[in-house]
Specification:
With about 475 residues, this protein is of the alpha/beta class. The protein folds into 4 domains: about 55 residues, 3-Layer(aba) Sandwich (MutS, DNA mismatch repair protein, domain I); about 160 residues, P-loop containing nucleotide triphosphate hydrolases (Rossmann fold, 3-Layer(aba) Sandwich), CATH 3.40.50.300; about 160 residues, Rossmann fold (3-Layer(aba) Sandwich); about 60 residues, no CATH class. The strands form 3 sheets. Strands 9-8-10-7-11-12-6-13 form an 8-stranded mixed beta sheet. The protein has a 7-stranded parallel beta sheet with strand order 16-17-15-18-19-14-20, sandwiched between helices. It has a 5-stranded mixed beta sheet with strand order 3-4-2-1-5, with no helix packed on it. The protein is globular, with a radius of gyration of 26 Å.
């Protein structure tokens, strides 16, 4: 009997040792350097299925999966919605994305899948802190010590946790070791570099977890190829009061003060003049061209500076700090998290109210210390710029204030999700402070069109004040 064509895993790709004249599927390409056919490792299962149609006899040596991990399950009973999500994923062939709001137990779903299938698994998370959180949850729920790949550690074990960046770097070496790969906060995967980790991996079982799959750049459509289809979806409004805390949204409209408004208007006029002149002189000029031009053109650089100053005026409006003081008075005995659009505003809030600020520049130990104090009730409030939008559990926090944000609808839903982990019957309240007649209003309208916002009760600050008083 003729020997089959050897199929091996080679640095994130599959190498098929068949002659160049062989009839092969169109996703394979001839590599003259090694005298073999190549394709991305993600096509492993597909190639095995297609082999018969192309009369290929494959001797498959690509898989080098770890042995079954010695799991000792200690997980809470699953709710019906969690069971339904797992069933939908299994019916889809063990490939797909589960979309559920923050706080509805996506981690328990993933751990249950690992346990049920006794699968060597790689869990990929966007942040180092979240990676270590997964490591702790695996130890607690599965009774297995998980390896850590990243943050200076290189532990490649039957169950391993890593970050998107580390997965991108190392998948060419470990992409044939795991039967299951779990992408937490899966909307990060379609990034320009991050998506390559999914291509370099031959794991037949793929699970994506996210509350907000859609991306402004449209690359979320890549999730279908990289992980699989959306197999289960539950929106935040549907989960409200059932699997997540009940919540209300309080819109607080404010205005710039006289001095801020005068500067804002002058900056706006100068920017409009520049753009109008460019349109007259150059057909097809777009605002997106400005950043490129600002590298060499002093006038463009000055307009960019003025545009950033406009943002700073809105993001750091004095009235936002005054309103924040009122909100703190409404919640004198509750922990409050304040979300800002800039590091500078987080530091302004910190200085004004003598509370800690966590920014992108905060060290890991500083950040963990602040969050531990906050969780223990020894710090009443914290200000954060973007860094707490995802990957942070805080069941006790039921009051949040949004003073600004530039990243659109997903950021807004993530921030709301920070408050919605169920804690008894306590309801959550999110305050949105919106500067009128600025881009703040446009962003607020976009948020209002999402299910999470459209179907939630809305209050004014005055109504919220009356409810708290009476």
């Amino acid at each position: 009997m003729a020997r089959g064509h050897a199929l091996t895993f080679d640095r994130g790709s599959l190498k098929l040792e068949a002659p160049p004249t062989a009839r092969v599927p169109p996703y394979l390409m001839w590599d003259s350097r090694v005298g073999a056919w190549r394709t991305a490792a993600i096509h492993h299962a597909r190639l095995r299925e297609d082999a018969a149609a192309y009369h290929l006899r494959i001797a498959d040596r690509a898989e080098r999966f770890f042995p079954t991990p010695a799991i000792k399950t200690n997980l809470p009973p699953l709710r019906s919605d969690q069971e339904a999500a797992i069933t939908a994923w299994e019916r889809a062939g063990g490939r797909g994305v589960i979309v559920k709001p923050t706080g509805t137990g996506k981690t328990e779903i993933a751990l249950s899948i690992i346990a049920r299938h006794a699968a060597p698994a790689l869990v990929v998370a966007p942040l180092r802190d979240l990676m270590y959180q997964w490591q702790r949850r695996i130890q607690r729920g599965l009774g297995v010590e998980a390896g850590v790949l990243g943050d200076g550690r290189h532990e490649i074990w039957p169950i391993t946790v890593t970050t998107y960046d580390s997965a991108w770097i190392h998948m060419k070496d470990i992409g044939n070791r795991y039967r299951l790969i779990v992408y937490d906060e899966a909307h990060h995967l379609p990034g320009p570099a991050q998506h390559e980790s999914a291509l370099d991996c031959l794991a037949p079982m793929r699970l994506g977890l996210t509350a907000t799959p859609f991306r402004a750049d449209g690359r979320d459509r890549m999730l279908l190829e990289l992980i699989g289809p959306v197999v289960f979806e539950e929106d935040l409004a549907a989960a409200r009061g059932r699997t997540v805390a009940d919540y209300t949204i309080v819109r607080v409209p404010i205005h710039l003060n006289e001095e801020e408004q005068a500067e804002f208007d002058e900056l706006s006029r100068s920017i409009r003049r520049y753009v109008a002149e460019r349109h007259r002189e150059e057909k097809g000029f777009e605002w997106s061209d400005l950043a490129r031009r600002s590298r060499t053109d002093p006038d463009a650089r000055e307009i960019m500076r003025r545009w950033r100053r406009k943002l700073a005026i809105v993001n750091r409006s004095a009235e936002k700090l005054r309103v924040l003081e009122d909100i703190f008075r409404l919640h004198p005995d509750e922990p409050v998290i304040v979300f800002t659009a800039s590091n500078r505003m987080a530091l302004d809030v910190s200085a004004r109210f003598l509370i800690p600020a966590i920014t992108a520049h905060s060290g890991k130990h500083e950040r963990n210390r602040v969050l531990d104090l906050f969780a223990a009730g020894r710090v009443r409030a914290i200000a954060a710029c973007e860094v707490l939008n995802e990957g942070w559990d805080a069941p006790a926090v039921k009051a949040g204030v949004v003073l600004g944000g530039e990243k659109g609808v997903r950021e807004a839903v993530q921030r709301l999700g920070r408050l919605l982990r169920k804690s008894g019957d306590r309801a959550a309240r999110l305050y949105e402070v919106v500067v009128q007649e600025t881009a703040d209003v446009t962003r607020a309208r976009r948020r209002a069109r999402t299910d999470a916002y459209r179907r939630a009760p809305r209050l004014s600050l005055g109504q919220a004040n009356q409810l708290d008083l009476f």
